[in-house]
Amino acid sequence: MTISGNKTFLVKATVQFEVHAFSSSINVQGFRCAIFVIMGIVAMLGYTYDWMGFKLTRTTSLINVLNFGAIGDGSADDSQAFLKAWSATCGSTSNGPSMIIPGNKTFLVKQPVQFEGPCFSSSINVQVWGDIKAPDMMNFGDINSHTWLVFSKVDGLIVSGTGKIDGTGKSWWDSCPKETDCKKRPAALTFNRCNNLQLSGLTHVDSADNHISITNCEVATISSIHITAPKTSPNTDGIDINNSTRIQIHDSYIGTGDDCIAMTDGCKFINITGVNCGPGHGISIGSLGINGSRTTVEELHVNNCTFNGTQNGARIKTWQGGSGYAKIITFAEIILIETGNPILIDQYYCPHNTCKNQTSTLGISSVSFTGFRGTTNTVDAIQLKCNSKVPCTDIALNQINIMPAPDMKPGTIIQSTCINAHGTSNTSNNPKVTCLLQ
C-alpha cells in the first residue's frame, strides 16, 4: 500500500486500519506523512483514534431536526420532530451533542414542548439558526399551559445562534389586555433547574407573556440577545429570574411592555451589565412579598445600563403584608433618557389599586444608587417609599445628576420624596435628597 505525501485525505466515515506487517513495497516516508495528515483531519472532525489499530471514533454528534421529520415551512406542526430530535440529543453518549435548528426556515411549534433532562452528556448544545414560531392563541395546543418552550433539568446547556423565537403574542394580548381578566399566558422560553446554562445570540419577539424565564437555576450567562415587544403589550417581561443564583446578563437589548428584567424571590448574586432597556418598565427587583409571603433576595447588581423612554428606571417593589428582606443591592453608572421614576423604592406596590393596608416586615437595606445621569419626565425623580414597621436602612445616593426632559414645562424643578427611609445622600446630588432620615 502506497500513501503518497503532499496530499489531502478526507475521512468521512469510521475507518479501521489493521497493520499486520510492513513489506518492502510500502513507501514508508509517504506512509508516515499521510498518517500525520489523517491525524490532523481526524482531530478537526471531532474524532478520537486508537494509534495501534487506527480505529476512529466520532466524539461529537450533530442532530438536525429535519432528519426527524421537521418541515420548517411555517405551516406544518414541527412539535413532535423537535421532541424526537431532543430525545436523540439528550440520549447521545457522544461528547457535546448538538441539536441543530437550521437557518432559512420557520418551524411552527403548536404544542407546549418540554425538553427534559438529565442528559447523558455533561454539555448539550442547541443551535438555533432558523426561526421558531408559536401559533396564535386559538391554535395553541394547550390553552391552559403557562409555558411554551421549556428546558428542564439540563445541566451544561448551551443555546446559541442567530435565529428568532417568535411568541405570536398579539392574539393573546388582544383577547385579554389586562392581567385581571384573562388566564395566565404562556411564557415563550423557560429554563428550570438548568445549571451552568449559556444563552446567547438569539432574537426573541412578541411573547404572549415573559420572553425568558430563569427558575431554580445555578450559574447562568445570558449575553448578546435582543428582545422586543410593543410598548403596549401586557406582562411581556424580557427576562424574569426566580429562585436562582449566580446569574450574569450582559450586552443585550430589551424593549417590551413590562419589566426589561425582573428579579424575584430567592435571587442571589445576580449581575446585570451593559443592558439597553426601553421601552418597558425598567429593571426591577420584585415584586416581592405577594399574598403575605416571605421573600429573600440579596447581592443583586446592575451596572452600566441605559433606560431609554422607560416607565421606571431602577426599581424595588414590594407588596404590603409580606416579610423577609432585600439587601446588598447596587445600581451604578446608569444613563437616563427621558426616563420615568429613575430611582424608585415602592413598598406599597399595588398595580390595580385594589389592595388593603397591611403591616409589612419585609426589610430593605444596604442599597446604593451611584452614577445616575440623564433626563426624566417625572417631577419626583427619586422616590423612596418604605414601610413603617421595618423602615429602609443604609440607603446611599451618590453622583446623581438628573435633569428635566426637554418636553417638560420650562422651569420644572426635579425633586425627591422619602417615607421611612434612612441613609445618606451626597450634597452634590441633583436633585438633592434631604428627606432621608439618619
TrEMBL record:
Compartments, record wording: Secreted, Cell wall
Transmembrane segments: 29-49
GO biological process, one term: cell wall organization
Chief localisation class: secreted
InterPro entries with a match to the protein in the record: Glyco_hydro_28, Pectin_lyas_fold, Pectin_lyase_fold/virulence
Pfam family, one: Glyco_hydro_28
Molecular function as annotated in GO: polygalacturonase activity
Active site: 281
SUPFAM superfamilies the record matches: Pectin lyase-like (SSF51126)
Keyword vocabulary terms for this entry: Cell wall, Cell wall biogenesis/degradation, Glycosidase, Hydrolase, Membrane, Secreted, Transmembrane, Transmembrane helix
Family the UniProt entry places it in: Belongs to the glycosyl hydrolase 28 family.
Protein name: Polygalacturonase
Native source species: Camellia sinensis var. sinensis
Lineage: Eukaryota, Viridiplantae, Streptophyta, Embryophyta, Tracheophyta
